[in-house]
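[09:14] KT: can someone run the structure on this one? pasting the chain below
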Amino acid sequence: MVRTRRFPVFLSLFIALIVSGCSVLFEAPTVRVADVQIESIGLTGATAAVRFQVENPNRFALTSAGLTYQLALRGEASPAEDEASWRSLASGESTQVVRVRRNDITEVTVSVPFDYADLGFALESLLASGVLRYRLRGDVRFDVLFGEVSVPFEEVGDLGL
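[09:31] RB: done, structure tokens below
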């Protein structure tokens, strides 16, 4: 009889230990933008290919639950990096499932379509320097034992045309 009383107590302590220790056992993966290139060009718009590197420092594999992104261009040729100089070009979500093995780096490419009509504000910068300054922000959601973990990313770079 004593053994049956100990089991629920042991199980409760074990679950509490797992839940409280998740932050110790789980280390957030690193997400970085490795490359942005023009993938295709059409009559009214184009598609950028964004290549991400996802590094999993954990001792177990991770599976992504999705990715959201916001692509903005800097519309002015000024050196200031203030928020007002950025204009949204595209935003969206990818539901592509990506599995990152334990202690490994995986690359994934996401297609980001945009319309030429939205590029008008950036023409001054393009004509002056031959490049477009971009900012890509978002987050990747990973399935974990007790729900989802969101890992943000942000990259600023130049896209030569």
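[09:33] KT: thanks! The chain has two helices and eight strands.
[09:34] RB: yep, looked fine to me
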